[in-house]
Amino acid sequence: MSTCMNKTQDDDNSYKALRRRVEVPCEFCDRIFKNRFDSVVHNSSHIIIPLIKQSLFICDICNSFFKSQDDLNVHHLNKHPDIFIKHEEISYDAYPKIKEPTELSDSKEINNVITEPIKNRLKFEDDDVTFKGILKDLVTECKVNVQICDQWDNVTKCYEASDAKFSEGFVKPIVHVKIEEEKSLVDKLVLDEPLTDEYLYDNFVGNANNQKFESIHYSLLVKPGIFNCRYCYTSFPDRFSLIQHEVVHMKIGKYIAGNHYNLNKHIQKHHCNIKKIAIETKKCEKCRLKYRKCHRHTRDYNSEVVTPSVKLLKVCDLCISFFRCTIRKKYYVKGTTKDELGVRYPCEVCGILHFKLKIVERITNYQYGFKSKKKKTNEDRLKLIQHRLKKLNLLNKY
To answer: Looking at the chain, which terminus has fewer C-beta neighbours within 10 angstroms, N or C?
Structure first.
């Protein structure tokens, strides 16, 4: 025990050591923290994570992303029919080659690309830091060829949004972006079926090419503008506040996951205004515990096997109509008495004489005398697994 205690005390990376009050400055932005734990969490924000290379087409006006050039053209015609855009063709090279300067360009020597990895060129603290080598790894160089179309002489009049008409020679300019496609991570996976653009769901069939992809970058979400809610038409100054508002219009279904204990906790936490339903409970005479249903309580807590009492009763038709089967008492008709001439039988309930009576078997179970729980078979276990999978499928839809 002493060796274990010494190990935990000497460990500098333990939770207690990280939470110890020490002023620790950040290595990148010189921000000071009260303990090492907060500084480690803050340093993770300086980590640069490379994104997967994709070919997306962006609208320069509303910053919407599209997967194909045709979708971008349709978007321009529908959303921005009155805005004039320059026709430019821009080609980005994923791995550009250094070309010799042309006659029009200035005669400058192009330095060779440094192939040394970034890890060997990082410097910290008092060393003379030069960021030129680091930026070459983080920024991709590209050659841009811009071709500007002739001026639009056919457009002579200003037109409003409602009465926008294009002349015969006027064609709306569009920005064309050509990006060299590379193998993505999806192409490297081994799939049994070929990939398609259609994604099938339980109640939804959609085409991926026609979907609109809007940027979720925080700087674009907070960008000022006028955004209206599609449900209540309330205007907001930015997209971020609009997204927070749309949660109000969401409908939440029934609580599926968990048992009744988790359900009660969920109701107490999220639905405090709902009135509690009064549930009648009884107290067990043997164990002094409260229960709702006698059968479940005796099965779980007082499952003692007691032989029930069986008795045969001779009852008339009127009295047998008042018999009711309960948990403790069961009634079974076994037959009738012999129909003999001049012989009358007294009813054991009302005492009236009758020529013919019914023989009823009454089985009385004591309060603590239920049979033991039946063992589950493999079929019952499979049914429970199927029921659990149905619940998981319902949860995956949300």
So the answer is: N
Q: Which domain range does residue 176 map to?
A: 48-215
Domain identity same for 197 and 316: no
- 155 in a domain, yes or no? yes
User: Can you give the pLDDT of all 398 residues of the chain as single tens digits?
Assistant: 444 445 445 577 888 888 888 888 888 887 888 888 888 888 888 776 665 555 778 888 888 878 788 888 888 888 888 876 654 444 444 444 454 544 444 444 444 445 555 545 555 444 444 545 555 555 555 555 555 444 444 434 443 443 444 434 433 443 443 334 444 444 444 444 444 444 444 444 444 455 667 788 888 888 888 899 988 989 999 999 999 998 888 876 666 666 777 878 888 888 888 777 778 888 888 888 888 888 788 777 877 655 678 889 999 998 988 898 887 889 999 989 988 888 899 999 998 998 999 999 998 876 554 556 678 889 999 998 998 888 888 888 76
- Regarding whether 76 and 197 lie in a shared domain, the answer is yes
Radius of gyration in angstroms for the set of CA atoms belonging to the chain, rounded to a whole number? 40
Indicate the pairing of strand 358-364 with strand 282-283.
unpaired
Cβ pair 180, 94 in contact under 8 A: yes
Q: Is the separation of the CB atoms in 395 and 375 below 8 Å? A: no
H or E element at residue 329: strand 329-336
Q: Are 210 and 330 within one domain? A: no
Selection from 274, 287, 369 nearest residue 328 by Cα:
369
For residue 344, what are its two tokens? 């009358």
pTM for the structure as a whole: 0.21
Which residue shows structure tokens 């971008």? 72
- In this structure, is residue 392 part of a structural domain? no
Examine residue 331 and state whether it is found in any structural domain, yes or no: yes
Tell me whether residue 151 is in a domain. Answer: yes
* Cα–Cα dist 370/302, whole Å: 9
Same domain, 190 and 329: no
90 and 202 belong to one structural domain: yes
Tally the domains of the chain. 2
Quick count: other Cβ atoms within 10 Å of Cβ 327? 12
Count CA atoms within 13 Å of residue 115 on its CB side: 1
